[in-house]
Amino acid sequence: MNKKEYSNGEVTITWEPEKCIHSGICVKGLPNVFQPMDKPWIKIEAASTDALVKQVQKCPSGALGYFFEEGKNQTESTKTEQIVELMPNGPLMVYGNIEVKYPDGKSEKKYKVTAFCRCGGSSNKPFCDGTHKKTGFQG
């Protein structure tokens, strides 16, 4: 996978373009940081470490991630509860740490936020890839 990294010396924000469903949550939350029309599109110096981490934790696809630089204070609290939210005309959002088990016996751990397809059109099932926007899914 193609992973890009942006660091401010305390935290490194990672972006995996193949996972991005272009929900725009990052841009709406921190428009001074996330500027998709620019290169590089993440201006990490435009917000505090705490604000960056809080916004990245809201990424529904997991395309955005982060890790703290070694020896730096970590402000993240580990979530132990899971919350499920139905997005109007969109995916099923699961917040918290989960394990996804596949029919072939394989399993995958997911952290923070995971978006599951509800429209049936995703080419990345069971995960959302944003197809619901193109098909006009209602539900």
UniProtKB/TrEMBL annotation:
It comes from Aquiflexum balticum DSM 16537. Residues 95-138 form the Iron-binding zinc finger CDGSH type domain. Signal peptide: none annotated. This is Uncharacterized Fe-S cluster protein YjdI. Keywords: 2Fe-2S, Iron, Iron-sulfur, Metal-binding. The keyword Ribosomal protein does not apply. The keyword Metal-binding applies. InterPro entries: Divergent_4Fe-4S_mono-cluster (IPR010693), FeS-contain_CDGSH-typ (IPR018967), MitoNEET_CISD (IPR042216). Pfam families: Fer4_19, zf-CDGSH. GO terms for cellular component: cytoplasm. GO terms for molecular function: 2 iron, 2 sulfur cluster binding; metal ion binding.
